[in-house]
Design brief:
The chain is mainly α. It has four helices and no strands. It has helices spanning 7-16, 21-29, 31-50, 55-82.
């Protein structure tokens, strides 16, 4: 029990966990675009399977959508680094 009363150990324990709780929130914000990408790509594959003749048009639209979703994910990630 003498170790728990030592002030240096208590200060070391307080400094062991540092950072901002907002960083965890921004990290979790990246999960949303990940789910969005899964839905987007899955629905595109489903559409191509139903109508193979429009595969090129669906693929182009999918890549544009992926670009927008990736920007949202990168914004969440970068915001966590900027404000932490």
């Amino acid at each position: 029990m003498a170790l728990l009363a030592d002030p240096s150990i208590i200060l070391a324990a307080e400094n062991a966990v540092s950072g901002n709780v907002a960083t965890i929130g921004y990290g979790l914000a990246v999960v949303g675009p990940g789910i969005g990408l899964g839905i987007l790509i899955g629905k595109t594959i489903e559409g191509i399977a139903r109508q193979p003749e429009v595969a090129g048009q669906l693929r182009t639209t999918m890549f544009i959508g992926i670009g927008f979703v990736e920007v949202l994910g990168l914004l969440g990630l970068i915001t966590g680094f900027l404000f932490s």
